[in-house]
Fold these 2 entries.
Entry 1:
Amino acid sequence: MEMIKAPRGTKDVLGDESRKWAHVIGVCREVAEDFGYKEAMLPIFEHTELFSRGIGDATDVVEKEMYTFTDRGGRSVTLRPEMTASVMRSYLERDMSRLPQPVKVWGYGPMFRYERPQKGRYRQFWQVDFEILGSPSPLRDIEVIDTSMEIYRRLGINNLSVLINSVGCPKCRPAYRDALRGFISGSASGLGGLCETCRERFERNPLRILDCKNPECKTLTDSSPSMIDSLCGECREHFGAVTRGLAAIGASVSVDNRLVRGLDYYTKTAYEILAGELGSQNAVCGGGRYDNLAESIGGPRVPSVGFASGIERIVITLEGQGVNIGEEPKPRVLIVNASEEALISSVSLLHELRGAGLSADMDCAGRSLKVQMKRASSAGARFVCVIGEDELASGTVGIKDMSDGEQRTVSRNDAVSALQTCLLDWGKR
Ligand code: ATP
Ligand code: MG
């Protein structure tokens, strides 16, 4: 029978790699606590409409990338391609506007997008997500950007570029869209100079043309008008406040007039953090302000700002920069045993050791004492408990200190406390 393999674009995170993931999530949790974000655990599937209305019908994510299916009750549901829409759905549905504002939420988990898999790009990928809901203040944009930068700082990641732009609001964006369209159609090559996807984008979502990786599209839009020049007074002021605030906290950021985001809900601030280690999938983090998302999914206006960062890409960057996250913890105690009878006695000692909070393990395969000792040594055990024929007969246990090879004998009843003392003394060395 043919072996069943994992679906394309998914990844098994195992062993040493999963430790790196846990480390990343742990650092995010610490930062969340220090910055005052509360954790939210949200469903990984939602009604399809949440995303088609929230993210926008004309976006790549909604048009081409969603995992959408009809469930057994005939409803259209979608595996979440991102978390922000769910966070806002939850804010509205749980009436969080009654809480002191803003509401600061973080979470993490798998997201799903039907994309072409390559390094740093998967169909199931994980994001950590931070959101501040219910505040229009540019200070919150700064706080969100600072949150993301603090995570990478604590992770020991360097050499990131932070790019920032303003994508305006429904008041000023239409004029910019027109200006961009006018620029493209008036250029020497006109619409014909764009790739096929961008020709489609031209009518429906022209801002996305600025984000196209195709070299011809890039060249064509190189000298296109800048969004910043089209901003309305309010957006311009907001952008100025954000850049001034970032300068005040010493954040090194560059303004990139071409930066747009793949999701329609962004207003005003959009930003991205890039890492060289990622190759062409170079964005480790993307975020910005989304003042109109709540209204687009049927709520009142809830001005908000947030970011999401891909865990796979964080881990690739950690590895690429050789960041050391410390040794894997080793079992402190290994029990080696001599006979079938000793096995039972070992199991009960193992149970007691673990119950006392010690990390301990044993050999269950009835290997020779010599082989077991070798294994204990290569596993890096601090102490070995020997239960041989003699120990069994005399109701004792041998404790061998693996650092100097010294062995002493204690009564079986005192074994747990003796090992606790040994480990304490060893810890003080
Ligand atoms: P990209 O331009 O690389 O497609 P994006 O703009 O679609 O990214 P966002 O929707 O802003 O990405 O998601 C935020 C972050 O999630 C990205 O910066 C990236 O780190 C990560 N991410 C997005 N899509 C994927 C994917 N398919 N596989 C792995 N990580 C991803
Ligand atoms: Mg994308």
Entry 2:
Amino acid sequence: MAEQQTLQEHNIPQHVAVIMDGNGRWAKQRRLQRMFGHRNGVDAVRAIAEAAAEQGVKYLTLYAFSTENWARPKIEVNALMSLLVDAIDKEEVTLNRNNIKFTTIGDAPALPQKVQSKLKNIIRSTAKNTGMTLVIALSYSGRWDITTAVRQMCRDAEQGKLSAADVDEALLASYLSTSGMPDPDLFIRTGGDLRVSNFLIWQIAYSELYFTPVLWPDFGKQHFAEAIKEFQKRERRFGRVTEE
Ligand code: IPE
Ligand code: IPE
Ligand code: MG
């Protein structure tokens, strides 16, 4: 692929975070039920996970279900949960073959029991893999993440393990669900909307943002390569001035 050949190998984002949006509209365009869009979205997940691993991305975080998505019709929520269970069953072998470590962020106890146990199994079965880490955000929101972190910090303070003077950015980050992971270098949202929708709000403070109108089920390896190419054109200043 021409796009991939022109990528600079020394400047691949370590961590890419993606809001996979547009499944419903993809289905609507075809006069199909929203669920067909979600089903085709799984193929895009496979393609992008593969592309990211090939490019040398270390962490790929995909927003699959937000805290706010619980407010969708029950039938859609249930269908998404069973799609998740099916996808885990189908992809376990591929993940292991590609040395990909699977993990999740989000309020796991809020998920149906069956989903929880499937997730536990696949996390365990891929735990020793040393290639890319694939992080799926499930029942996740940035405000949930920060609130949960602060609650745990308060508990630790109550038990005398922590005092106010200990609190700095690094400590707070260590209480977040992404503890130990680098912040996303590149943040991608498909589907054309220009918002963050409560995804990794703390962690994307200095991410490069990339928005594309392409609907998630249509987002393929070439699109991913284009996003990385755009990332490689950006000058990341982190508030400093460009060195002469
Ligand atoms: C994203 O696609 C997938 C989930 C939120 C689960 P949508 O379902 O939000 O699709 P649109 O935005 O309605 O097209
Ligand atoms: C964001 O998409 C959440 C996921 C992709 C899982 P939404 O479709 O839920 O976000 P809004 O409603 O456009 O903000
Ligand atoms: Mg949407």
